[in-house]
Amino acid sequence: MSVEVEASDTDRAPGSHRSSRDRLRSYLVGLVLAMVLTAASFAASSSNLVWSPGTPVLLAVLAIAQMGVHLVFFLHISSAPDSTNNVLSLAFGIFVVGLLIFGSMIIMANLNQNMTLNDQMLDMHLQR
Amino acid sequence: MSAAVDVAHAEAPEGAPLSQRGPAPTRVVAAFGFWLFLLSDIILFAALFAAYAVLAGSTNGGPSGAELFNKRHVLYETGCLLASSFTCGMMMIAMDTRSTRLIYLGSLITAGLGALFLSLEFSEFADMIRGGNGPTRSAFLSAFFALVGTHGIHVTVGIGWLAMMVGQVATIGFAPMVVRRLFCFSLFWHALDIVWIGIFTVVYLGVYR
Question: b vs e for B75-111, b when ≥16 Cβ sit within 10 Å of the residue's Cβ?
């Protein structure tokens, strides 16, 4: 028993077996960070402080940062041994999500480009 | 039988190497299984996001997002979900201290904020449909209602789940089974907030360029 207490005091991975006070502090930090990032997103979308073609990039960065904050402070994804499998499956999930979204966008943009016929081609295609 | 399982799943000392710790406790295994479900759910949302990204410009002469969306409205919805995510976390701390009263209070606030979010979303949908801009108006609006509506259905299911968990805490108490289910609920609720971050960024803020 004493070994367990000693080990958990010194060799503790972040996010595992913490006191209520530590967990409350973690949730509060997460809440404040998420609120700041949300406010920044809404401000960035309406202000002219950022060069306007760069706004979508800024919005994407803020959204990904906020998702990271939620994962770490609310869903408690950490480097603890308990969550190794969770992190690996999360990486695979992000990979599939990326393939699905960006793959669809690239394929559909490509199709749109290739399927656009000029008038002459359209006449030939429709045999008129 | 259950006693034997409990012994087999007893927590090994933290310092022991991974290879000598034996099977992971049920708490960890159940959370991992639910985590896999959440990832598959997020892949479902990714398909809807992909459809929206492809169809966002296909308004068929109808209104675009910039004409339909009210940013202040979306800010209120975001605030509701973020606050309910936080109170859900407070509920998890109350669960660790086995405080029934705080669990009831936390779930009341969490479900209340979720319901407020749903009513805001419902009023937005009702306004759009009343103005003739329902899901049948254009491909853009079909994709919009599919994506945001699916998220709303998830929130509705989450509120029902939370109500059931309150019933289980009241009747069964803090059995390991109930504690695991409440923990899975908190994962579900936080994951819905993550999906909402994607929605307000891509759908609502992405149009104000």
Answer: bebbbbbbbbbbbbbbbbbbbeeeeeeebeebbebbb
Q: Which of A70, A102, A108 to mutate to test the interface with B (most CBs of B within 10 A)?
A: A70
Count other C-beta atoms under 10 Å from residue B42's C-beta.
Answer: 19
What are the chain A neighbours of B28 within 8 Å (beta carbons)? 82
B99 neighbors B182 (Cβ within 8 angstroms): no
> Helix or strand or coil: residue B23?
coil
Joined tokens for residue B189: 């609720």
Q: DSSP state, B10? A: P
User: Per the CB < 8 Å rule, is B71 touching A81?
Assistant: no
- Coil, helix or strand for B143? helix
Angle at Cα A88 formed by Cα A83 and Cα A94, nearest 5°?
A: 120
Contacts of A62 in chain B (CB under 8 A): 201
A vs B: CB pairs below 8 A: 117
Specify the residue for token string 């945001």.
Answer: B148
Nearest to B128 by CA among B145, B146, B150, B103: B145
Taking contacts as CB-CB distances below 8 angstroms, the residues of chain A near B75 are 42
Question: What one-letter code names the amino acid at B59?
Answer: T
Q: Which pLDDT tens digit goes with each residue over A9-64?
A: 444 444 455 688 888 999 999 999 999 999 999 998 888 888 888 888 999 999 99
Chain A residue nearest residue B85, CA to CA: A74
Distances (CA, A) of B195 to B13, B44, B185: 37, 11, 15
Whether the per-residue pLDDT at A104 is higher than 80: the answer is yes
CA B154 to chain centre: 6
